[in-house]
Amino acid sequence: MLEGLRHRLGTKSVYASTGEHPNTNYTPSFQGPLDYIWYSTANLSVNAVVGEVDNSYLEKVVGFPNAHFPSDCDHLCIVSEFCVRPPKEPQTARPPPVFPESSRAHA
């Protein structure tokens, strides 16, 4: 995770509570995190995340993609499942949209 980076966007990494993946890119010339999933903490909560690749496996391979992790690129898949949080304040009903008469002629 990037230390010292601050913002007011209200976003968080899905892996903040479990620890960032040490490798989202694994090649002979580079091993490290490049990919992140950021989400809005006001509207979403994290239900689940895909775990990292076991280190004992990584010690046996040169990099990705390979026969066990086929891909079009050298990035590892990171996945998260979210739950949409209900709004904090009650939403007022919006009136239905009004369309111009010309759009009704085609219906």
Descriptive labels:
6 strands, mainly beta, 20% strand, 107 residues, two-stranded antiparallel sheet, 2 helices, elongated
Structure write-up:
- The chain is mostly beta strands and 107 residues long.
- 7% of the residues lie in helices and 20% in strands.
- It is built from two helices and six strands; from the N terminus they run βββββαβα.
- The strands form three sheets. Strands 1-4 form a two-stranded antiparallel ribbon. A two-stranded antiparallel ribbon has the order 2-3. It has a two-stranded antiparallel ribbon with strand order 5-6.
- A hairpin with a 4-residue loop joins β2 (25-26) and β3 (31-32).
- It is elongated.
- Residues 87-107 are annotated as: Disordered.
Radius of gyration: 21 Å
Q: What is the spatial order of strands in the main beta sheet?
A: 1-4
**What is the count of distinct domains?**
1
Low-confidence parts lasting 5 or more residues at pLDDT below 50? none
Number of DSSP strand runs: 6
Count of DSSP H/I helices: 2
Helical amount among residues, as a percent range? under 10%
Give the rounded overall mean pLDDT: 83
What composes the largest sheet?
A: 2 strands, antiparallel
Order of helices and strands: EEEEEHEH
Basic shape? elongated
Class from helix and strand fractions: mainly beta
Q: DSSP strand (E) fraction?
A: 15-25%
Distance between the termini: 52 Å
InterPro entries: CCR4/nocturin_mRNA_transcr, Endo/exonu/phosph_ase_sf
Region (Disordered): 87-107
Organism: Rhodofomes roseus
Protein name: Endonuclease/exonuclease/phosphatase domain-containing protein
